């Protein structure tokens, strides 16, 4: 028999005062796997995380940790008995305790020497070995989050949960810390669920990504799949900038203004293409015209208006010199293709 | 992983605890409110034909007068120390709350003895202007209004000052920068934002005035609270007293209703924001002298002069031949006072900690409601709480008798239980308010983190919530202690025979116009109450710097 999965949430519901926050969400976490749960604020991702931690109960469905049923809406295991580590956005370090006391907080069942050794081990793991006697207010934001990580990992949880752990940090620190956390999780082989509203963070961290919207998971998949083959307009535009083109039927098959697509039917589906897959070739007799251009350092973003009235965003190399009013033709980059996505 | 637990039982123990505490607190008030439904016509007819009309009029005039007075004095002084700099303004900023340590009945009898007909001031007046020279009557409604205003204005001062240091002050500044003249900016922008704080302050003042029946008796004023006292101590007719107490409750409802009206649709308590408050202007010349004098006169009349007078009397009595009566029991009275204050503070503290944490752990909306119900006592005047508690305890006595547990002496009147119970009902609110604010400051994430690290709620309270909220818990205990030290009506109504506190001792001596002899216990109350008030002042002066 195979090992039970670290986390299985099946058909989970949460309703706050008549407002549905999570409606029938199912999610699994494999051994040593990191899943990023991404979505706009208020989509229910933090509610789901709180139910997995046991801080809230489910109103329907069930949650299993390592094959043990911990909540089925009738009975429930309290958070202190779940062996789940959790790292919040901020504020969660105990201000009246030192770094060492914070990290040792969850180790009270162990012997004193055992506890000290484990704290030292954890502080070494997060690269802050000299910090044991400091207080949280003496640390920088990034250091605080590393201590919070060490504290959550110290008791050896079976699952780690992260609730927007880097959201209150500045951009550079965020990337740096992200790498360090990924490394630590990897070295301890702890499965983790990351809640974030930042698609780039989800792409960078997740072995798999679950995109959530209005209480439901819209798509689950590996990062490339979520980015390249989104199943809905929402997933496509949430993850990055996207062009949506209407599909028309022409005799033998289906096509858009940029060419043929594999399948589709009017109304329910549109074709999606990333700006980086669209090329603009300058040509004074072309039927397209640049409406707006924006310099982004590594490339130019061009908003191009076609003769049909459609508007498409395209990328141009940093050496090109586009200008508003330039004429040209639009086409797909070699090897690129349009993806058919659901409109709703 | 540990055993499963019914989801429906999650946090149930916390919720039940809060509900039980709320019920225990609300019963005395509820019982009284209920008794209105079956009025005893005879009592009311008799009252209506004798004292009642006058009591209604005098209570109304007194409440309005003290309300307006404390609004002007408290609000005005708060504006003065917030908007201007003048010699001593930083010290007045916190020193002006000193009268909080002076019980109103103490200032009342000092005022009567100094300014009254036989006092030194009037004697001197008559020497100069002749025996029949007119002097404003001190032992009057007007005199009582001035005394109450002088001891109670700090409540308005405190709240108005906090509001000015915050949003209300900032928006005045913004309005000025948009071209509004000072008066216009104050009227159109600052006052509307200050209104909730002023309304809340005046409501507290009115409630404290309504609850009093020591001071008003010195000044010969007949209020509805005096009526309750007279009926209960005169006839021990519980039904009649409780019916009359509902009248006091009615006044309290009117006060609360007016506060809601005065507050408008604004919410009170948006303090702690990033607002920078008023930019202070430096006063010069005669204006700075006037500002200094104004603060100085209020502080002298309300605090410094009476305290010095009391000290002088206490010393001359101690060294004189007559001596303070019952002086040999001073230690006992002091011990009783401190004991009572300590017991009530601890009971309120524990109750507040339980309820405040229940709100966090129960996960039920009903718990929040229970917490509000548990605060009801502070909006109910002392005599009402006292009579309601007697009602409950008499019922308890009877119940215990029925099941055959005969206690030596009744629980209601024979022991401290009634006294502690009634005071807890009344003072759980200030404790709960501060403790709850402290626990609210602990982010939910911190509670969640502690639990997922293996701590049960009980140990989260002990190892996380209480250490982090300790300042608030201490402040709550301090507030309760000050209230209990000064408390008179409940003690007078419910004390077991032979149990005297400093406040009862003071009141009894002063009732017999033995003012010099009442000085020692009175000054002892002020000195003991100065400790917690001093702590509060220190917090204020820190916050200001």
Strand content of chain B: under 5%
Ends distance of chain B: 52 Å
Low-confidence sequence ranges of chain A: none
Sheet with most strands: strand arrangement of chain B: 2-3
Total DSSP E strands of chain A: 22
Helix content of chain B: over 70%
Query: How would the global form of chain A be characterised?
Result: elongated
Please, what is the oligomeric state? heterodimer
Largest sheet of chain A: 6 strands, mixed
Contiguous uncertain segments of 5+ residues of chain B: 268-274
Rg of chain B over CA atoms, rounded to whole Å, is 25 Å
Number of helices of chain B: 24
Structural class of chain B: mainly alpha
Helix-strand makeup class of chain A: alpha+beta
Q: How far apart are the termini of chain A?
A: 41 Å
Q: Give the beta-strand count of chain B.
A: 3
Mean pLDDT level of chain A: 89
- Helix coverage percent of chain A: 10-25%
């Amino acid at each position: 028999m195979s090992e039970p999965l670290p986390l299985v949430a099946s058909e989970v519901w949460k309703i706050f005062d008549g407002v549905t926050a999570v409606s029938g969400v199912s999610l699994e976490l494999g051994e040593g796997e990191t899943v990023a749960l991404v979505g706009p604020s208020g989509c229910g991702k933090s509610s789901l995380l709180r139910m997995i931690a046991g801080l809230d109960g489910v109103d329907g469905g069930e949650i299993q940790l390592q094959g043990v049923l911990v909540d089925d809406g009738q009975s429930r295991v309290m958070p202190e008995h779940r062996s789940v580590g959790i790292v919040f956005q901020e504020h969660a370090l105990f201000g009246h305790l030192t770094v060492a006391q914070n990290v040792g907080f969850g180790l009270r069942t162990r012997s004193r020497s055992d506890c000290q050794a484990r704290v030292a081990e954890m502080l070494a793991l997060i690269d802050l070995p000299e910090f044991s006697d400091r207080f949280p207010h003496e640390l920088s934001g990034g250091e605080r989050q590393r201590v919070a990580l060490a504290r959550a990992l110290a008791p050896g949880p079976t699952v780690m949960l992260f609730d927007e752990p880097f959201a209150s940090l500045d951009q550079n620190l965020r990337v740096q810390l992200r790498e360090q956390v990924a490394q630590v999780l990897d070295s301890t082989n702890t499965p983790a669920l990351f809640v974030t509203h930042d698609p780039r963070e989800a792409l960078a961290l997740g072995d798999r990504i679950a995109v959530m919207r209005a209480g439901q998971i819209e798509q689950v998949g590996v990062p490339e799949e979520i980015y390249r083959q989104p199943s809905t307009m929402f997933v496509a535009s949430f993850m990055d900038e996207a062009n949506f083109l209407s599909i028309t039927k022409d005799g033998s098959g289906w096509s858009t203004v940029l060419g043929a697509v594999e399948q589709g039917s009017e109304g329910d589906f549109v074709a999606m293409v990333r700006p980086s897959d669209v090329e603009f070739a300058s040509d004074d007799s072309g039927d397209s015209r640049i409406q707006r251009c924006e310099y982004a350092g590594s490339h130019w973003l061009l908003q191009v208006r076609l003769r049909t009235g459609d508007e498409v965003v395209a990328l141009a190399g940093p050496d090109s010199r586009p200008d508003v009013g330039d004429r040209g033709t639009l086409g797909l980059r070699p090897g690129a293709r349009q993806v058919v996505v659901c409109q709703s | 992983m540990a055993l499963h637990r019914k989801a429906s039982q999650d946090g149930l123990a916390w919720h039940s605890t809060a509900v039980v505490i709320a019920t225990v607190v609300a019963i005395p008030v509820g019982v009284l409110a209920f008794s209105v439904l079956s009025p005893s016509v005879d009592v009311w007819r008799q009252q209506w034909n004798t004292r009642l009309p006058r009591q209604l009029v005098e209570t109304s005039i007194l409440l309005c007068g003290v309300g307006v007075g404390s609004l002007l004095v408290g609000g005005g002084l708060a504006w003065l120390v917030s908007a201007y700099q003048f010699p001593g303004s930083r010290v007045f900023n916190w020193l002006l709350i000193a009268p909080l340590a002076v019980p109103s009945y103490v200032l009342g009898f000092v005022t009567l003895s100094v300014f009254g007909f036989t006092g030194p001031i009037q004697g001197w007046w008559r020497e100069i202007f002749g025996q029949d020279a007119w002097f404003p009557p001190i032992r009057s409604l007007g005199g009582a209004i001035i005394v109450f205003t002088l001891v109670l204005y700090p409540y308005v001062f405190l709240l108005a000052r906090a509001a000015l240091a915050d949003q209300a002050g900032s928006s005045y500044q913004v309005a000025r920068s948009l071209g509004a003249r000072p008066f216009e900016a104050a009227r159109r922008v600052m006052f509307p934002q200050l209104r909730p704080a002023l309304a809340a302050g005046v409501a507290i003042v009115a409630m404290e005035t309504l609850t009093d029946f020591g001071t008003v008796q010195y000044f010969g004023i007949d209020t509805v609270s005096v009526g309750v006292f007279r009926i209960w101590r005169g006839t021990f007719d519980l039904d009649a007293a409780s019916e009359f107490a509902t009248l006091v409750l009615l006044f309290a409802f009117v006060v609360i209703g007016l506060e809601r009206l005065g507050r408008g649709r604004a919410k009170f308590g948006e303090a702690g924001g990033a607002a920078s408050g008023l930019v202070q202007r430096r006063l010069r010349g005669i204006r700075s002298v006037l500002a200094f004098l104004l603060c100085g006169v209020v502080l002298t009349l309300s605090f410094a002069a009476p305290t010095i007078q009391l000290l002088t009397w206490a010393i001359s009595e101690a060294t004189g031949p007559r001596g303070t009566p019952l002086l040999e029991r001073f230690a006992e009275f002091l011990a009783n006072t401190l004991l009572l204050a300590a017991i009530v503070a601890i009971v309120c503290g524990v109750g507040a900690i339980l309820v405040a944490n229940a709100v966090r752990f129960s996960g039920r909306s009903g718990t929040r409601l229970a917490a509000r119900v548990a605060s009801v006592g502070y909006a109910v005047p002392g005599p009402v709480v006292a009579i309601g508690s007697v009602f409950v305890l008499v019922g308890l006595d009877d119940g215990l008798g029925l099941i055959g547990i005969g206690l030596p002496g009744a629980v209601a009147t024979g022991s401290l239980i009634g006294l502690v119970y009634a005071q807890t009902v009344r003072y759980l609110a200030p404790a709960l308010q501060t403790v709850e604010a402290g626990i609210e400051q602990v982010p939910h994430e911190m509670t969640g983190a502690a639990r997922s690290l293996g701590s049960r709620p009980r140990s989260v309270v002990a190892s996380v919530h209480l250490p982090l909220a300790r300042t608030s818990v201490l402040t709550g205990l301090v507030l309760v202690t000050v209230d209990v030290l000064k408390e008179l009506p409940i003690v007078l109504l419910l004390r077991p025979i032979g149990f005297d506190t400093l406040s009862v001792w003071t009141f009894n001596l002063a009732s017999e116009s033995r003012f010099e002899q009442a000085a020692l216990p009175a000054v002892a109350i002020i000195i003991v109450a100065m400790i917690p008030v001093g702590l509060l002042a220190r917090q204020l002066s820190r916050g200001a710097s």
